[in-house]
Write a structure and sequence with these properties.
The chain contains eleven helices and no strands. It is globular and about 55 Å long. α3 packs parallel to α6 and α5 (about 95-130) packs antiparallel against α11 (about 245-270). The chain is an all-alpha fold.
């Protein structure tokens, strides 16, 4: 990694870490983890031997609402405004180095926020409840980081493609609404309208078309709780050849969700007019 790339990444990480709402999200992750531990009986009521397995199932839906929002906001905050990009490119750096350096710095900020927030919440839960299956919490944190990086890449693509920061953030809000709230309901409705096995095929393919669904499946497999997916989820796992094959394909698809938007963002950033 070149010195210029490291410098840009460090600068972007510092700028992101100073944002007050980044610290707010870090606190929110910790509070959600602790609150859901109480709500799911991990603290105070149930046997703690499978505590983090239950905690993962409880925290995951809320985490998959907050993580994309935070990542999209960070990604679109890099949209050009007031000649900032022109000023940076006046330095001895290329456009590609600028785009990649900004993404690396923002990715470090997203990952640090998740590790500190969820890790702190998990540590408090472990201290109170005695839950010791820490690898399942690590699976939750790792999967949330992957979700964060995927939506960060989408945010970076918006920042490169949309000329104004306010417009990029508006587009990010729309994408968040579709991915988090509208998508699953729309796919389920479409599947119900399809005849025969076509509906099942729609649901099968729809998992790969939304990074959040991939993260949900991957997290539950890693946490040892794939039964939470229900009969449809079990059929999906069997169609892919079992949990191991499903985990490999989900990981590959998630990697594509991270790399492809980032590559497009870098390409657009390299050829667009300032």
């Amino acid at each position: 990694m070149s010195t210029h790339l490291v410098t840009i990444a460090r600068m972007e990480f510092t700028a992101a870490a100073r944002l007050w709402w980044i610290r707010l999200f870090t606190t929110a992750y910790a509070m959600v983890t602790i609150a859901m531990a109480y709500a799911s009986g991990v603290i105070g009521e149930a046997d703690s031997s499978e505590g983090f397995a239950r905690l993962t199932v409880a925290v995951l839906p809320l985490a998959l609402m907050l993580v994309p929002l935070a990542s999209l906001l960070i990604g679109t905050s890099g949209a050009p405004e007031g000649g900032e990009t022109a000023f940076l490119l006046a330095q001895p750096v290329t456009r590609r180095q600028l785009a990649l350096g900004c993404w690396i710095g923002q990715a470090a900020a997203v990952s640090t926020t998740l590790v500190i927030g969820l890790g702190t919440g998990g540590a408090v839960v472990a201290a109170i409840s005695g839950a010791s299956d820490i690898t399942r919490l690590a699976a939750l944190v790792g999967a949330c980081v992957l979700a964060g990086l995927a939506f960060l890449s989408i945010g970076s693509l918006l920042a490169s493609a949309v000329p104004r920061r306010s417009a990029a953030m508006g587009a990010a809000a729309f994408i968040w609404f579709v991915a988090v709230i509208l998508y699953d309901a729309a796919m389920l409705g479409l599947a119900l309208l399809m005849p025969g096995t076509a509906g099942a095929q729609v649901l099968f393919v729809s998992v790969f078309a939304n990074a959040l669904d991939l993260v949900r499946v991957l997290t539950l497999i890693l946490a040892g709780t794939p039964h939470v997916l229900g009969a449809a989820g079990e059929s999906w796992l069997r169609a892919l050849g079992g949990p191991t094959a499903a985990m490999a394909m989900s990981s590959t698809a998630l990697a594509a969700w991270i790399v492809v938007p980032l590559a497009l963002a870098t390409r657009i950033h390299s050829v667009r007019d300032l």
